[in-house]
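#dry-run=false #mode=assembly
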Amino acid sequence: MKPCNYNDARRGFLKKSAAIAALYITPSIFVKAFAVDAVVPTPIAKEKLSVTINGKLVQVEVDARITILNLLREELSFTGTKKGCEMGQCGACTIHINGKRTKSCMELAVNHQNNKITTIEGLSATEQLHPMQAAFLKHDAFQCGYCTSGQIMSAVACVREGQAKSRDSIKAFMDFNICRCGAYQNIVDAIEEVAKTSAKI
Amino acid sequence: MNTKNIDTIFWEDERVDGADKVTGKARYTAEHNLPNMAYAVFVTSNIAKGTIKNLDTTKALAMNGVLDIIYYANCPAVPGYNSNAAERPKNVSEWRGHKVLYDNKVRFFGQPIALIVADSLENANAAIRFVKPEYEKESFETNFDKARLDPANLKAPISYKRGAGNTKAIAATVDAEFNIPIEVHNPMELQATIAYWEAEDKLLLYDKTQGPKSTQGIVARTFGLPEKNVRVIAENVGGAFGSSLRSWANVPAACIAAKKLNRPVKLVLTRPQMFSLIGYRPQSWQKVNIASDAEGNFLSINHEAISSTSRYEDFREGIVDVSKFLYACENVTTKYSILPLDLSTPIWMRGPGEATGCFALESAIDELSYKLKMDPIALRIKNFTTVNPENKLPFSDNNLKACYDYGKEKIGWKNRPAVPGTLKENGWLIGYGMAVGVFGAGKGSASVRAVLSNDGKLLLECAVSDMGPGTTTAMTRIAAETMQMPIGKIKFKLGDSDLPPGPSQGGSGTTSTVGSAVDLACKTLQQKLIGLAIQFAPGFSSFTADTLEVKNELVSLKTDASKNINIVELLKLANQEKIDLTITSNGKTAEQLKFTSNSFSAHFVKLAVNAKDGKIKVLQVITTGDSGKIISPKTARSQMLGGVVGGLGMALSEKLEIDHTTGQISNASFGAYHVPLHSQIPPTEAWFVNKPDMNMNDIGAKGIGEIALIGFAAAISNAVYNATGKRVRDLPITPDKLGFKTTKA
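#status=ok
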């Protein structure tokens, strides 16, 4: 038996992301110190963005401050990607950017010119469920379903990146996705099955 | 003629709405985007108590895209905000709780003091820091531990006494105090409302609620509208655990803004706001005293509790109630008071007061077992009762003993060290613990509409919600079983206040209440079909209704199934497009009221505590439930597994921290408030007695959601004691409380 340290790694990450988030949402009591009061509001420039979402080229004018998460949900109707914290701490907004799992709430859209985005809606190229979606359904790897898109996008990355070798390594990889209903065991069951049975996902 | 094997009915055991959830198609409240919709965000107070002398919105109003800033000085009149009953129209009742945007008072840190409405979320957020409040601060109190020591601070004590007091010889006594901090529901979906006034007196709401009908009623009465003019939609609810059982400030705020701007307004709380604006499990202090004779018979139980509430509302829950009826005991006293603090109002959180009470009671019983040198399971069996000692009614069913037998065997109870702290493996101290959970099993009234179309499909409707337990699935399965027809032909629709009235989802009552109505609707439908068969089916006119039955989509003669008619053909013969009926199922019948009904659980835990640093690693969990008949095995199991996860958080990591010098919550994020994660979850097995409780309702099913969590924290605490010999009575159980020095990670 050995102590489980995965969680420590995650907490370290969370501390870091909390500090980043704090920069964006500085309470007004601290604002004076930074003399933000002096800023005169000016119209916000829109920037042209060209990205591929689920295989389709999308060209839009975006607010320079908009995150990929809000762009997907509020502007482009890809509501399958969920908003859980906007601080990079819960994983509900996980998508793939250029094949890499990414928390879309922490990414400004304008920084992703010409990138390839895959959301839960585009995970399966056909009408059939993606093997990971089918495994989540079979193992009842969710209850309310709200963290599910993020869990599935992370789960696919877990298998693709070769991190699904054991239950412990799956858990370590998946520690960045919170499920408050507590479907964790079923999620790991689903990932383990896909890792064992699907040749390539 | 098609006679499908009945065994094929239940092969589909996945959630009926599961495919929508794994593909991202299921839409939650904030995911509805209406034309011309504006975005609203709250500006919140950064003092705990006082008065806003002035709110400068000049700069913020000049910001790009800002449409309006609504606060006490410019908030339109809300009929239900008027506290003068004489002035309120008849159809208006006073808004319960904090009247957001109404006055210049600050009642807790993080209270909404203004609402910014802008054309985009980015523009709304950018303006927050430019709204400048000037406060006149007042002194406040947020420190429960300090405030509860002064009896003058306590409010509304309720006492209970049974028996004349013990006179028998006492062999062992436990007298112990227990503390549970504030815990926060933190469902993954953020609380959200979209409000749209379709006409001057007609309101459409997409709202995250556990009760569409409840929200509809509250909003109608607050804004003085006929109930039918308010439509509340909540088709999918992304977890709630009690936090969406009432309408919070986001509801009136969105309605006010939408009215003032005459356009749809979306208001979504932020994660930090989820910690202070939608309730929490109140902080509590408990004292339990149990005395027993040498054989372990409980001679007396005294259970005292204090729990926190806000300064502006009284909130209390069933903390001490478990001690009144879970075990046989002649002499029981309880006392429960509430302690108002300068915080927002709490609300029931999964397992509500019973989870709090069971932690204390079940820990104390464990403690007593060591004093008596008795096995804690044997001690519980010694005081087992089939009659509720509080109301003297027999339990409709109580299969706790079966739960004990199963859990004991599966966890390997025989390996439990009789002397705590003596089982050591590779530097880890091993311990076993168990505890019981109990929750009332209710049955309320609900209406269900059933529409059987001539394409053979059955639609059922009820204005209940499904926050995750799988209500849609369970209701579909109940209909399939009563109708004896395939699940694939049945659709259950919920989450819309326009549907026939149903209860709020909570208190483990949905399956019993709505399920009974679904069952009744299907039985009524079957009688209609039988009536039609006698009237229209060739050769059926001589049969009487009691000789016919409906199953496998056929109306057939009970004694000779070859005499049958397909229900689709029957509707065609009768020249009916559909049968459309709505029934109402009421609460318990006189016969059912002769019993007292509860769901029970027993949780078994094996864990290891690191002998060097006190790190706790849960190795295995067996969780057993006595919930009557299990309607949907897959989702029922998931509920039990989820209860264990929630219980792990309660036992080992969850605690809201408040800085009492400012009144501010200092860990309002997932980074600092530690909910359980993947790597902390032990192998868990869920098991059910699965025995229909037909004294309870016609479907034999009782609730699962609450008992899945109730008692679990005590099972952990008891196992930690068994492993280490150290009794931790203050949650969460962390290494420092076991006497280990904390080291930086």
